[in-house]
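Methods, example record. To illustrate the input and output format used throughout this study, we show the complete record for GNAT family N-acetyltransferase. The sequence lines were provided to the predictor; the line carrying structure tokens was produced by it.
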Amino acid sequence: MSSNDILPDIRLRAIEPEDLDLLYKIENDEMLWDVGVNNIYYSRYILHEYIANAKGDIYTDRQARLIIENDSHDVVGIVDIVDFDPRHLRAEIGIVIQNRYRHMGYAKAAIQHIIKYTKNILHLHQLYAYINSDNTNSIKMFNNAGFTQSAELKDWLYDGSKHHNAVIMQYFIKKNKI
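The corresponding predicted structure is encoded as:
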């Protein structure tokens, strides 16, 4: 998908109790553990409590987890804003698209929505993502969304048997046009 391609229409919304099954599936998918910092199984109870107890205020929670829906109201994935730092005006972004919706532009569309939100509402200076350096699809997608690679961290991610390098991708909001 090139930068000139038309992206799918999406809607971001807050996580709801009926999203518990999706959250359970994503958090317990061992294939995704290599791309994030969590590597334990979560019970439905723990995830239910997370949904029930989230304040829905990024300044209190220091994070926001949003559901990505397509124009047919199908849930295609989740995008997270984590490690929100209002003092330094930055946050980390993470995104998971369900397998059947990958390579269709949903991730890039969601990132564009997040960039607009973090620029216009949170007034952030930058977003960043840590990506396994072997994950060429994610690196390419973030590059296509306007992120640039700023560093490589040696042996940053551990998959249970081997360490992997991670790249830091950054998007400087005020310098880029949305």
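Annotations derived from this record:
The chain has a mean pLDDT of 87.
The beta strands are 10-14, 64-70, 75-85, 90-97, 126-132, 148-158, 163-172.
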